[in-house]
Amino acid sequence: MKGKKWLILVIALGIVLLASSVGVTRGSFVDPESSTGNGFEAWTSTQWVQNTQADFEAGVLNQVDTSSSPGDVPLSLIPSPTLITSDNSEVSASGDTEWHLVKTLTFTKDGATYNELRIDSNLKAQHENFSVSSSVRVDDVEKFSHSTTSTSYESYGDVIDFSGYSDGEHTVKLYLKTSKSNKPAYNSVFELYRTKTYVSSGTIASQVLDTGVTGARWDALFWDETLQSNTDITFEARASDTSFAKGDASPSWTSVGGTSPLTSGLPSGRYMQWRATLTTSDPSKTPTLHEVRVYHY
Question: pTM for the full model?
Fold first, then answer.
């Protein structure tokens, strides 16, 4: 009889434990992307991925570029000439009609903002009635020339497509010549500009995700990026059970950091949105955002 009571007690305890687990789903996800070496385990979640030009352009863009490399988001390039190097001392050359090297500028190409360069210079003759000429050469290949008979400095310049040149050191040289012996040509300006530079910061906010679940929680925020030196990408997130538009001022944003994956400090709500801020302290370099993945449940 005593044995039967113990058996009934064990069976009852088992029923209670079984009932307590009803409705609890246990499982895990492992982030499938390997480009950043991320791996994370948590409760079973739904994944929302943004990685195409259409995905990114459905959000709110501010000083970022989504078209030059579809599927990637770097900072915008702006046509703001930046001086690379110069030699504005006054020099002259005379003698015969051969070219004379008078100035050499050396610089190092580093990235896409060196794909278009502008060279400014000037030229004058000492006396009227004879011509003087200049020749501008990049890596000893002539890019443009100029001639004048003016005895006042005459400015000239040109923009050079530098996209076909490799990263590394290059030279820009200035040569002068005259049409008569002992009649010098003069130069006092020789400047090299980078015509396009990156803005210092920009943002991209995603479209608003409707999870369809009141009180939905973010499990994790992953992203893939390329960071050059002196660049960074940081993230903010916001969520609400009340619908909001992608450009609305509220709900407020929560700063969540700049290291993927983010698994804490993420707000809860049916409607979710992330915002990335791209920054650079070097106008020749940009961070690039490739993909953002949100896990929620």
Answer: 0.63
